[in-house]
UniProtKB/TrEMBL annotation:
GO terms for biological process: double-strand break repair via homologous recombination. Residues 18-232 form the RecA family profile domain. Coiled coil: none annotated. GO terms for cellular component: Rad51B-Rad51C-Rad51D-XRCC2 complex; replication fork. It comes from Olea europaea subsp. europaea. Gene3D superfamilies: P-loop containing nucleotide triphosphate hydrolases. This is DNA repair XRCC2 homolog isoform X1. GO terms for molecular function: ATP binding; ATP-dependent DNA damage sensor activity; DNA binding.
Amino acid sequence: MATTREWLKPDETAKELLVRVLTERPLLLLPPPLHRLPFRVGNVVEIVGPSPSAKTLILIQAAINCILPKEWNGVEYGGLGRAVMFVDLDCRFDVLRFSQLLKRRLIGSRANVLGNEHDDFHELLTVCMRRFLYIRCYNSLEFLVILKTMHCRLQKEKETQAGGVYLLMIDSIGAFYWMDRALLSSSGSNNRKSLSLQCVVETMVQEIQRLLLVHPMLVLASKSASFGDKQSTTEVIRNPGKGSSVMAMDFRSGPQNLLHREYMPSVWQSFVTHRIQVRPSDYSCKYQNNATYLTEWLLPSLKFSDKFIINDDGLLVIL
C-alpha cells in the first residue's frame, strides 16, 4: 500500500512541466503588427477593421512567415517551414500578388549573402508555394462543408509535409453575414432554426473546435467592421436575433471616439481569444505617399497602439 509521501510525490517538477508544455505547444511570434503578443496553437485571433485597412495583407505576411523555411542552403529566412490553410470567403484573394510578395521576401533574404548561388531559387519558391493551401467558398453552406471535410485534407498534409498545417486563416469571417440575414428574412420557411445565422455560426465554431482537437493550429480570422464618431461610450442596438448581439462599443484610440459595431453572434465572440483593431489613420508627415494605419489590441486590452505603413514592396513597416 502506497504511503502518503509516495502519493503526494509529484509526477514532474515545475521546470519539467514548462519544458514539456513549451515543446508540445511552443509560443509563436507573428510578424508586425501582430508581434506584440505571443500565441499558441489553439488561439483564435480576430483582425477587425473597416475596408480597406490591410487586414488581408496582414494575413498574407503571417502566411509567408509560416511557409518560409528557417534555413535553406546556408541562407537564413527566419520562417517556420510549416503549411498554411487559407480559406477565402471574400473571394477577392490575389494569388499572383501573394507569389510576388513571397518572391520579394526570398530575394531580400538572399541579397545580403555574398557568393550565394541563385540556381535553387525556383526550387525554394515551389517548396514554399506547396505549403500554401488555398480554398475559396461562395456561401455559408460551402464553408460548413469545407470545415466538415477538412480533417481528411489536414491529415493528408500531415503525412506528406512535416508537421502539417500550422495556421488556419479565414478571410473574412463575416463575409456571408448579410447574405444569410437576407435569405432568412425572405425564405418564409417555418424551420427558422435550420436557416438562422446563429445555427450556422454555432456549427462553424463546433467544427473548428473539433479540428483543433486533432490538428493543433493557430486560427487567424479577419472581420470587416464599420466605425463612426460618437460621443457616448457605449450604445446598445436592437438585438436582431437569439444569441446575436449587435452592440456599438466605443474604443478610444487617439483623438477620435471610434464606434465599432459588433454583428457576429455571441458564440463566435466568446470563441475568439485575441482581437486586434486596425484602421486607417490621418497621420502623414514624411510618409505622404504611403497610407498609414493604426492598430490597437482589444483582447487583451493593451494601453498603447502601433502605427504602420505599407512600403513599395508590400511589407508592413512599424513607425
